[in-house]
Amino acid sequence: MPHEKIQHYLQSIESLVRKLKNVYVERYEEEILTANRANIRLKIRFQSGALLEINEAIVIEGGSLEHLGFRYHFQDQRNQLIFRYDNTPHFPKLSNFPDHKHSLNAVAGCVRPKVNEVLYEAVSWESEKSS
Q1: How many CB atoms within 10 Å of residue 127?
Q2: I need a labelling partner for 55 at 20 to 30 A (CA). Which of 63, 85, 102, 113 fits?
Q3: Residue 54 and residue 31: Cα distance in Å, rounded?
Q4: 10 Å Cβ neighbour count for 123?
Q5: Which residues, 6 or more positions from 10, have their beta carbon under 8 angstroms from its beta carbon?
């Protein structure tokens, strides 16, 4: 049985995804590794054909939920990068290393966004493209 904070976190993500309109969930996988560690992997396809992938490795440390790793990748229907947030440690000179954001022509340091913020960013992009 997963730790209650992991369980609550996973339920909150599922609730957010269920509220999305005009999307198809291609993959929704929760992997409970131990009571204190889990992974989540999602692929959400938008009406335009754009794809959002959410991957997180989470753990309970000192009673708090922490992210060991994350990757939030959003691309358009032609597989062109719109944005990707991740914490792969390959840009050590950026602020907030290793957390950073890729856009089409740049990489910048950032604070890891919450999943609801990533969903909002993708939905906003989708709304702009369809209007």
Answers
A1: 11
A2: 63
A3: 13
A4: 17
A5: 2, 30, 38, 40
Contact 46, 52 (CB under 8 A): yes
pLDDT tens digits, residue range 26-78?
999 999 999 999 999 999 999 999 999 999 999 999 999 999 999 999 999 99
The residue among 12, 60, 6, 68 whose CA lies nearest residue 32 is 6
Element (H, E) at 107: strand 106-109
Phi, psi of 74, deg, nearest 5: -125, 130
Task: Report which DSSP code applies to 123.
Answer: H
Instruction: State the DSSP code for 16.
Output: H
Q: What is the DSSP code string of 29-58?
A: EEEEEETTEEEEEEEEEETTS-EEEEEEEE
| Backbone phi and psi for residue 87, each to the nearest 5 degrees, phi listed first | -125, 30
Q: Distance between CA atoms of 128 and 124, rounded to whole angstroms?
A: 6
How is the chain split into domains, by residue range? 4-130
Instruction: Report how far residue 47's alpha carbon sits from residue 77's, in angstroms, rounded to the nearest whole number.
Output: 9
The candidate with the shortest Cα–Cα distance to 97, out of 113, 116, 110, is 110
